[in-house]
Amino acid sequence: MPEIRECTELLNYGEISDFCHNYREPIFITKNGHGDLAVMGIETYEELMGRIELYQAIQVGLDQIKNGETIAEEQMMKNLSGYLGK
To answer: Quick check: 16 and 9 in contact, CB under 8 A?
Structure first.
């Protein structure tokens, strides 16, 4: 469940930082009763960005399959052998 705080609580940086690092969840900051910011620890941000990059790479692969942009398994293994040091 997201943590929601008023913008005035940003003055208590230590508590917000501790929450974000201990629970690895963002805190949503409101301003005048409306959503304004999402604050999260750097570890949570990096994990989120890693997921987004993975999902984008998967989508590229799915698009390539959909468009018939595939290669035979033998060619793939040959291509990979250069990366694997074989």
So the answer is: yes
